TrEMBL record:
Transmembrane segments: none annotated. It comes from the Bacteria. The modification 4-aspartylphosphate is found at residue 52. Signal peptide: none annotated. InterPro entries: Bact_response_regulator, CheY-like_superfamily, Sig_transdc_resp-reg_receiver. This is Hydrogenase transcriptional regulatory protein hupR1. Keywords: Phosphoprotein. It comes from Rubripirellula reticaptiva.
Length: 151
């Protein structure tokens, strides 16, 4: 089953996220700090993580960057109450964030971001190289184009 880790220092928000996602086919885990999330990653690989930016000691940005370095295949979504463009750019460029959501985030938006992130990861795993026969198809097109020039 798909394993998702929700990370936020606000336990009420974590409970709300878990409630929103409880009917989905996911194994849900929660961590109330970046440090706890790191410990959990060292015991278990997660398919997707949703991280709040503003947390004590280890920020969401630091955690996202750590996950990108150590578990690059994990899909990363960031939640924040601070919608600064610079932060979004940094997290997308340095942390490889799939989606950057601002609080409050609607239940449907969060569920859709998670579903799309997981689908994106699956499609990357399936399509790891050019399709079989691509070079043959390309050369056939080239020949056809060359033949058409003479017409």
């Amino acid at each position: 089953m798909t394993a998702i880790l929700l990370v936020d220092d606000d336990m009420n928000l974590l409970r709300g996220l878990r409630r929103v996602l409880r009917d989905q086919p996911y194994d849900l885990y929660i961590a109330n700090s970046g440090e706890m999330a790191v410990q959990m990653f060292q015991r278990c690989a997660f398919d997707l993580v949703v991280v709040d930016h503003k947390m004590d000691r280890m920020t969401g940005a630091e955690l996202i960057t750590w996950i990108a370095d150590h578990f690059p295949e994990t899909v990363r979504i960031m939640l924040t109450g601070n919608a600064r463009v610079e932060l979004a750019q940094e997290m997308i460029n340095r942390g490889g964030v799939f989606r950057f959501l601002t609080k409050p985030t609607g239940d449907v938006d969060l569920a859709m971001a998670i579903r799309e992130g997981l689908e994106s990861a699956r499609s990357k795993r399936v399509c790891v190289g050019p399709p079989v026969g691509t070079s043959h198809f390309m050369s056939a097109n080239t020949v056809s184009a060359d033949a058409m020039v003479g017409l």
